[in-house]
Amino acid sequence: MLLKPAIEADYPEIIDLVNVAFRATGPSASWNVEAGVIEGQRINDSLLREDLAKNPPAHLLIHRDEPNGILLGTVRLDPAKDGVWHLALLSVKPDLQNRQLGRTLLAAAEKFAQERGAHRIHMTALNVRDTLIAWYERRGYKSMSTMGRSCPEANRQPSVRLVL
């Protein structure tokens, strides 16, 4: 799988994909949506730009089957210190999830980080998202601890830290 760095022209598609993957309802919804736990958009243009500006070493990566094809997946990787990286915004076009694109995208993101010195990857997930947490655990991640809220709109739901 080819991951390439996102450019500014990709931002509208990334925002649309992340919002559909995390918050859509109805027949187009993903198996792992946050609907019912968190409402509203997951991300918008100003939040994306603000997050990237706060962490210049972050890698916002995208995947397309063809160079000018539709956006199929995205992931964000933030290098921290001592070889620990944070994984976020892993998103796959919901109607293509039956292609095992999520696990392929996750493996490619892990390889990307490892090639740049990562020896550990962590992420957070809302503790009420049992199905999603189990999916990551099947990929080798371990639930390490329960933390405070992972995002302001999380309705005071604690988060679980997952580590590979």
Question: What can you tell me about this protein's structure?
Answer:
The protein is an alpha+beta fold and 164 residues long. It has a single domain (4-120), classed as Aminopeptidase, CATH 3.40.630.30. It contains 4 helices and 7 strands. The relative contact order is 0.16. The longest helix is centred in the middle third of the chain and has 15 residues, at 101-115. The protein has helices at 11-23, 45-54, 101-115, 130-138; strands at residues 4-5, 59-63, 73-79, 84-92, 120-126, 142-149, 158-163. The model is unreliable at 148-157 (pLDDT under 50).
| CATH superfamily label | Gcn5-related N-acetyltransferase (GNAT)
Average pLDDT rating:
80
**Number of DSSP-assigned strands:** 7
Largest sheet: 7 strands, mixed
Shape descriptor: globular
| Strand line-up across the major sheet | 1-2-3-4-5-7-6
The end-to-end distance, rounded to whole angstroms, is 20 Å
Poorly predicted regions are 148-157
CATH class: Alpha Beta
* Share of residues in helices: 25-40%
